[in-house]
Amino acid sequence: MNVPERIAALRRLMEDRGYDMYLVPTDDNHQSEYVGEHFKARAFITGFTGSSGTAVITQTEAGLWTDGRYFIQAENQLAGSGVTLFKMGEKDVPTVEEYVEKTLPEGGTLGFDGRVVAMGKGQALEEAAAARKGSVNYSEDLIDLIWENRPPLSENPAFALGVEYTGESTESKLKRIREAMKEEGADVHILASLDDICWLTNLRGNDIEFFPLLLSYAVITPDEMKLYVDGRKLTDEMKEMLAGAGVSIHSYNDIYEDVKALPEDCTILVDPDRLNYALYNNLPKAAKVIEKMNPSILMKAVKNDTEIKNIINAHIKDGVAVTKFMYWLKKNVGKTSITEISSAEKLEEFRKEQEGYLWQSFDPICGFGPHGAIVHYAATPETNIPVEPDNLFLTDTGGGYMEGSTDITRTFAFGNVSDRMKEDFTIVLLCNLRLARAVFLEGTCGYNLDILARMPAWERGIDYKHGTGHGVGYLMNIHEPPCGFRIKIVGKEQAAIEPGMVITDEPGIYIEGSHGIRTENELLVRKGQKTEYGQFLCFETITYVPIDLDAVIPDMLTPEDKEQLNAYHAKVYEVIAPHLNDDEKTWLKEYTRAI
Q: Full-prediction pTM beyond 0.90?
C-alpha cells in the first residue's frame, strides 16, 4: 500500500471503532528520540522518515507536525501523499494540542496507542479533548492492524561495559538513585527511558539502529530493582553481575501488570516526559505520584574522570578517521567517481580501522551542494548525487566506540567555490569559535550562551532553525539531556551547565537550492578560575579535525578569532599527526597552518 491507501485503511478502522481522530507519534514505548524498525508507525502512515514528528488523522484531514530541521525533507516526502505539513514553531501554526481542541468534533473521541505517547503528552491531549467535551481512547494500536509484515521487536543480544569504561558500578549508581528517591520522599521509582536504564545497569544493546540501547523497563525500591527485559538477550555473566547488585530479571511486558500491584499507599517518582501514558494509567489510583525529571538524567550527563579519559581517546581515534577521510576527499574529488553514499561508506571504512569501533553513532548526513541545505538529509539511492568540484559538501557523522560516542560536522570546499559560500562558511566558523571560547559563571544554562554563537550570523540578518548544540551520551544517545544550546527553552534543557558535561557546538547556514554549511565540535565543560565572584567555567574542544581553510576568508576574523583558530589547528596537528603516514602528515601541516 502507498501512503494514501494506508490512510484510507486507517480511516475505515477509525470509523468502525468510533474514533474521530487518531494520533501517531514518533515514539516507541520508552519515548526514545530514535526508534527501532518495529516502532516506525509514523513513518509508515505518512511517508516522512525524519526522527521527530507527530501525525494526526481525521476522516477529512491528515497532518504532520515537525520542526525546522525537517521542513525541506518533509515537504519533499509528503508531496502527493495527502498529508499537510504543519511547521512547528512558525507563526500561526497550531500545536498538536491546539489542533485537537479546534478540530475534534464536539463529544468526539481521540485515539492513540498509549504506550507510545509520553505521560505528560497524554495528559495534555486528554485536556484538549475534554475542552471539546470529548474523550481519549489509548487502548489500541490501529497502525498494527493495517501494517502487513511489520518488523518484530528486536531480539539482538546485549553487551556489558566494565568499570574500566563506566568508572562506576551498578551498585554505586543505584545507591545514588536511592538517595535521590529518599530526598523526594519516594518509595518507588519507575524508569522507562532506555538510556537511563542502560546507564544504571552498565548494559548496552542493539535494539535501535546506531544507538546501543536495550529495550527494557525498571522498577526501583529501597530494597531491590526489577529489570523488565527479554532475558534471552542477557548472558549468564550479565545476569550474575546484575544479581550481585540486587537486580532481578522479569519479562519485558510484565511491568504493565506488576505496577498495578504496587501498594496503594506508596509514593512513586516518575518523569512525565519519559514514562508512557499507558503505564502511568496502570499505577494504583490511590498512590501518590511525584512528577520530576529522572535523577539519573543529570547524573548521566556529568561524566566521571574515567569516562572523560575514554571519551577523549574516542575523539582521537575518530579524529584520525575523519582527517584521513578529508585527505582522501581533497585528493580524489574531481578525479574519480564519488557520491554522497560512497563517501559515507568510505568514511566508515576509516572508522573501522580504529580499535574499539562498533558502528556509526547515527545515520550519516552527507549532503553535497543543495542537499547540504536539508538539515537532517539522509542520502538514498534515489537522491544520491556525485560529489564534484566547485561546491560545498556537508558531512555530519559520528562513531560509536567502546570509549564513547562522537558527533562531528565538517563542511568541505572543492574547486572554485563562490564568494558567497566562503562568506557563509566563515560566518559559521565565527559562530563556532565565539561559543567555544565562552567563560561563564557556574549556574549558567545553555540558553544563556546560545546568543554567543548566533551573534555573528544575526549581525548579518541570518539565522538557523535548530539548536546550536546538545549533550552527548557515553556510548548511548547522541542527543542527551538535560543541557544544550538553544535560543528558546525546550523541554527539560534548563539545567545548569556543570563540569564534566559534553555538549556540541554546531551552528550552520542553509541556503535552499544552493548549499548548506555546519561546523560542529564537541565541548567538554571544565572548571576555570575561582574568584570572589564565584566559580567560572569554560570549554575544552575535544574534536580533533581540521576546519577547511580553503573556504575561510581570513579578513573576516578578528585577531582573537585567528589566535583561537590557529591554536585549535596546532592542537589538531599535535594530536592527529602521529597516527598518519608521511604524505598525510605533510598535507595536514598545510591544512592546520596558522592564518
A: yes
- 207, amino acid identity: D
Beta bridge partners of 411: 394
**Residue range 159-295, CATH number:** 3.40.350.10
Q: Burial level of 415, CB count in 10 A (0-12/13-18/19+)?
A: exposed
Query: What pLDDT sits at residue 375?
Result: 92
Q: Could you tell me whether strands 267-270 and 188-191 are parallel, antiparallel, or unpaired per DSSP bridges? A: parallel
Do the beta carbons of residue 301 and residue 482 sit within 8 Å?
yes
Q: What is the DSSP-derived secondary structure letter of residue 466?
A: S
| Architecture of the domain delimited by 302-555 | Alpha-Beta Complex (3.90)
For 241-255, what is each residue's pLDDT tens digit?
999 999 999 999 999
Burial of 179 (C-beta count, 10 Å sphere; 0-12/13-18/19+): exposed
**Closest by CA position to 202, among listed 238, 156, 256, 240:** 238
Residue given cell 487502548 in the structure block: 139
The span from the CA of 28 to the CA of 209, in Å, is: 13
Tell me the Ramachandran region of residue 485: left when phi exceeds 0, alpha when psi lies from -120 to 50, beta otherwise: beta
* H or E element, residue 523: strand 521-531
Amino acid identity of 409? T
pLDDT digits 0-9 by tens, 400-452: 999 999 999 999 999 999 999 999 999 999 999 999 999 999 999 999 999 99
Q: Which CATH architecture has domain 3-146?
A: 3-Layer(aba) Sandwich (3.40)
**564-589 tens-digit pLDDT:** 999 999 999 999 999 999 999 999 99
Query: Residue 489 — very low, low, confident or very high, per pLDDT cuts 50/70/90?
Result: confident
Residues 6+ away with beta carbon under 8 Å from 415: 333, 334, 388, 389, 390, 391
Cβ–Cβ < 8 Å for 299, 173: yes
- pLDDT tens-place string over residues 298-342: 999 999 999 999 999 999 999 999 999 999 999 999 999 999 999
Three-state secondary structure of 193-240: CHHHHHHHHCEECCCECCECCCCEEEEECCCCEEEEECHHHCCHHHHH
Beta strand 21-25 pairing with 54-58:
antiparallel
Type of residue at 271: D
Strands (E) across 532-592 are located at 534-541
Query: Domain boundaries in the chain?
Result: 3-146, 159-295, 302-555
Can 3-146 and 159-295 be said to share one CATH topology?
Answer: yes
Sign of torsion over alpha carbons 107, 109, 115, 117:
negative
